[in-house]
Prior knowledge:
By secondary structure, the protein is of the alpha/beta class. The chain folds into 2 domains: 2-62 and 106-320, Rossmann fold (3-Layer(aba) Sandwich); 70-103, no CATH class. Helix content is 36%, strand content 19%. It is built from 11 helices and 11 strands. It has helices spanning 2-10, 30-34, 37-41, 87-93, 128-145, 169-184, 198-208, 228-238, 249-252, 276-300, 313-320, and strands spanning 68-75, 97-103, 109-114, 150-155, 160-166, 214-219, 240-247, 259-263, 268-272, 303-304, 307-308. α7 packs parallel to α8 (228-238).
Amino acid sequence: MRSLRARLRAGSPPAVASPSGEDPRLHLDLAHLQALEPHGAALRLLPRQPSRSVLNGRHASRLRGRGLDFAELRGYLPGDDVRTLDWRVTARTGAPHVRVYTEERDRPALVVVDQRMSMFFGSRHAMKSVTAAEAAALAAFAVLAQGDRVGGVIVEDERLSEFRPRRQRPQLIRLLRCLAEANAALHAEAMTASPTSMDAVLASVAHLARRDHLILLISDFDVIGPRTETLLGGLSRHNDLVLMPVSDPLSEALPDDLRRVASDGHRQATLDTAERPVREALEDVSARRRQILTDWQRRYGLALAPLSAGEPTLPQLRRLLGLGRRAAGGGHGR
């Protein structure tokens, strides 16, 4: 019964189950996420990006380079860059002194992935929650492979799970295990709960990433709160913030002959897009949310990397990062 309700919610036909008996379009497990490691390691989330990447400067955002750590103050030597002169020390001592810096060893990243009930929807390829989880795992493995620290925030309807950035694979596996558990908890018979507001999500992010972080926010951006824009603006001033909205093809272009039973796990209602007011109301919700994200992108210079649950995740990420076409491999050509 549960699988039937999930398929009705997904609006998709039955699929061949995985060895564990679970439909991978509805739920994924830790083994599935771990299998993404070689694909994630081939991605690039470094400051120098291909020209077609959404993280390139031409797309209104550019990843900052790694910062500089102060190493020492010493006397000027022939060949030193005059821009490194410390004029205060030079004036005080009467001899030229320079400040020496070393590049930071790494640049931490925080992957924020939404697994609230609003993400448990899909009409064509997979649930939005599955697409978000795969994108989060791929990005996390990419960060770890390039030698940087990676952490994350797993967002559920009634709680947030925080993982501080670490350059440790066991830590990443713990994050992915938590992500898989949150994904498995989503089902059509789940009890109705008040979803976590984006305000709470961003406050958690601000606590973990005060400055000089790469922040990937993977969500459908449901329940935007009164402080959401203010928190986003504050994070973007000191970090590189990439918004990765996950949508479903059905919300992008509603047919005029769709009739579906929608449920929140407790109540259900019939949606009939043949009724013009119903169709226009649904389209207006999607259009307003897209406009809000576009406004944030322009106002704060954020990168916008949209994902669709209507196609495999890996090829989308490769396109967004300007890496061109390549066989997805593994289970990503589903």
